[in-house]
Amino acid sequence: MKNIAVFASGGGTDFQSVIDANEREKFCVIKYLIASKEGIGAIERAKKAGIPAAVFAKKDYSSLEELYDSLSALLEGAEVDYIVLAGWLKIIPPSFIARFRDRIINIHPSLIPAFCGAGYYGLKVHEAALSYGVKVSGATVHFVEAEVDGGAIVMQRAVPVLDGDTPELLQKRVLETEHEMLPLCVQLLCEGKIEKEGRQVRIRA
Amino acid sequence: MKNIAVFASGGGTDFQSVIDANEREKFCVIKYLIASKEGIGAIERAKKAGIPAAVFAKKDYSSLEELYDSLSALLEGAEVDYIVLAGWLKIIPPSFIARFRDRIINIHPSLIPAFCGAGYYGLKVHEAALSYGVKVSGATVHFVEAEVDGGAIVMQRAVPVLDGDTPELLQKRVLETEHEMLPLCVQLLCEGKIEKEGRQVRIRA
Asked: Where is this site: Raises pKa of active site His (chains A, B) (predicted)?
């Protein structure tokens, strides 16, 4: 059974979707919730599910590198195989990404390459999509590379934009899809069914 | 009944989809097929459907502006209400776009803003999408502005990318969707059901 750690910076509904699916399907051990600060909803969800939560807040470290070095040591000590970014807003240094190459996935609330990259997170993504006037948005699970939202795409699903949508309404609709996709991708990853070659990702049946 | 002109540079399958839908639903008069050169498939399709075809080839004019001035005169003389770009590869000068403001629509074989803009046409769009590794592509009907593929979006539909896709296979799948969307958008436009405000487009029921 593969070990994972989930990184979250907010309420943790994407994290919860992985907890719930794993309780049903038992495809991994969630070794840690890594939180970017105290007091976020994701920590409460970890506690309820009996998952250890560790806080790695910028203010506790002299540099981002030091924070991620310490975090790497924790994850490697716990033999974590995969890292799942589920709303992680902290910048990740290339050294950390290199250390866990092809073992970090992220979920992004748009159809990459639309509305992604630096500055596109949370509601800002949906604000940008509505302001552009797209009729189809969606969600993307991708491997994490040094370029923000630039890694190989594992899975994408389209979500319609409807008349009268606000960023909040569109976010809610996209989140429903995220909560299906993310646990599915984590399961496929843990079951060794995701094959990556450069930017091309295939899912084995 | 509104008058339209369809502009095409190639085989004209998008053009054909408008001809076929209009034969069933009679939502417009197709006054002209405008072809960017002699000998393209779209001209044959126009002849078969009894639609006048006019060729506006660069080589016959001293400048692009002169070509489009002459084309404007033709279209205005024929009281053309809307222009439908159905695979039109010639650059359109801002003066022409201004003259027919909010009366030109284009179909593009991706989910704009992904894989669009200068250089993205025909198979190149699908090559770029496959090379990037997206799992969802699609098609977009949009109003034409001076910025290539930059106008307000009328309609978008998602099309899945499948394992083993080549640019040709993906193009074929997207074309099937284009042939549904384009006639529908032309019909909605001619029936006055498309409302545009800045970048926001709504379709009235």
From this structure: 149
Q: Which residues pair with B200 in a beta bridge?
A: B197
- pTM value is 0.94
Distance, in Å, from the CA atom of A133 to the CA atom of A153, rounded to the nearest integer, reads 24
Interatomic CA distance for residues B2 and B29, integer angstroms: 6
Chain A interface, Cβ < 8 Å to B: 111-115, 131-136, 138, 140, 152-153, 155-158, 163, 199-202
Query: How would residue A196 be classed by pLDDT, with cut points 50, 70 and 90?
Result: very high
Using the structure block, give the residue that is written with the tokens 């004209």: B12
* Matching residue, tokens 């992604």: A116
When CB atoms are compared, the residue of A113, A136, A138 closest to B132 is A113
Complex confidence, ipTM: 0.93
* Region for residue A164 given its phi and psi (left: phi exceeds 0; alpha: psi -120 to 50; beta: otherwise): left
Angle between helices A167-190 and A13-25 (to 10 degrees): 40
Residues A167 and A43: their CA atoms lie apart, in Å, by: 26
